[in-house]
Specification:
- This protein is 0% helix and 54% strand.
- By secondary structure, the chain is mainly β.
């Protein structure tokens, strides 16, 4: 089982990016999916998650700017990031807890310049 996180890049402050978390190993609709990030010299922190029935949770630092949602047809969970700030710079990871195992995608780098 592999998760694929993509969509990172370099963007100016105030810009937007959309991250994708996809897998071909199982149907994401059947599981909660979370996005995490890790900035240099900092611990990994939770950014957002979406439950099986669509309930979403956001870190205070991204509320009102980030949106997590599912595209069932694409078997993908997206993280739409708007009004990006330099402090959003980090490697972003998606995570799916499945049958007692935490599956992590390879991170995607997001860099926001001031």
């Amino acid at each position: 089982v592999q998760l694929q996180a993509s969509g990172g890049g370099l963007v100016q402050a105030g810009g937007s990016l959309r991250l994708s978390c996809a897998t071909s190993g199982f149907t994401l609709d059947g599981y909660a999916v979370g996005w995490y990030r890790q900035a240099p010299r900092k611990e990994r922190e939770g950014v957002s998650c979406i439950s099986i029935n669509g309930i979403t949770v956001y870190a205070d630092s991204v509320k009102g700017r980030f949106t997590i949602y599912r595209d069932s047809a694409e078997n993908t969970v997206y993280l739409q990031m708007n009004s990006l700030k330099p402090e959003d710079t980090a490697v972003y990871y998606c995570n799916v807890p499945r049958f007692g195992v935490n599956y992590w995608g390879k991170g995607t780098q997001v860099t926001v310049s001031s």
